Amino acid sequence: MSFTVAIVGRPNVGKSTFFNRLLEQRKAIVDDVSGVTRDRQYGITDWSGKTFNVIDTGGFVHDGTDVFEVEIRKQVKIAIEEADAIIFMTDSAIGITDLDEAVADLLRRATKPVFLVVNKVDNNNRYLEGTEFYSLGFENTYFVSSMSGSGTGELLDAVTALI
Ligand code: GDP
Ligand code: MG
């Protein structure tokens, strides 16, 4: 059985940083065979002896255009269809934005397990600021720094417990 985890969220929250960190352990970015997945990156990694696929979304989403929110919504919907679990990444340095709320609305309706990840928790102040994300109402909420790796182990333990 193959298990797929998709990373979604608005631009600049650190999705690709987290994806690259996961892939460092076992570099295997899957080539785009079909040519239609330029806005997503597929990889394979493992944690605690469990192998799973990871999708990094939003590579071609750019800030400041009207298509912006539409494009993110599209990415989230594809992720909900393709993935077995979803990592919803947000940014503790910025706080909750309208786009985070829009993504949260879509994910609340998903029947797949969602892990809300508050990223850029590089220090205790960021953690205190990041607790506002509990208000989005996701049962599984994790605080991580994709840059240092802090907190990512606990998150991956929880995600791979589903496999
Ligand atoms: P994406 O658009 O969601 O894929 O975000 P990126 O992975 O491209 O990261 C956006 C910016 O946030 C980059 O400058 C990263 O170096 C930075 N970043 C990512 N994770 C962290 C983190 O844990 N802490 C800090 N301070 N910066 C981070
Ligand atoms: Mg990215």
In short:
The protein has a single domain, classed as P-loop containing nucleotide triphosphate hydrolases (Rossmann fold). Helix content is 33%, strand content 24%. It has a seven-stranded mixed β-sheet with strand order 2-3-4-1-5-6-7, with helices on both faces.
| End-to-end CA span | 9 Å
What's the gyration radius in Å? Answer: 15 Å
The count of strands amounts to 7
Q: How is the largest sheet built, in terms of strand order? A: 2-3-4-1-5-6-7
CATH class: Alpha Beta
Strand content: 15-25%
Give helix % range. Answer: 25-40%
Helix tally? 5
Structural class: alpha/beta
Protein architecture, described:
Associates with the 50S ribosomal subunit. GTPase that plays an essential role in the late steps of ribosome biogenesis. This is GTPase Der. GTP 1 binds at residues 9-16, 56-60, 119-122. This protein is α/β, with parallel strands linked by helices and 163 residues long. 33% of the residues lie in helices and 24% in strands. The chain is built from 5 helices and 7 strands; from the N terminus they run βαβββαβαβαβα. It has helices at residues 15-24, 67-82, 98-108, 124-130, 152-160; strands spanning 4-8, 29-30, 40-47, 50-57, 85-91, 114-119, 141-143. The chain has a 7-stranded mixed sheet with strand order 2-3-4-1-5-6-7, sandwiched between helices. β5, α3 and β6 form a beta-alpha-beta unit. α2 (67-82) packs parallel to α3. It starts with a strand and ends with a helix. The model has no long low-confidence stretch (mean pLDDT 89). The site of magnesium ion has 4 residues, from α1.
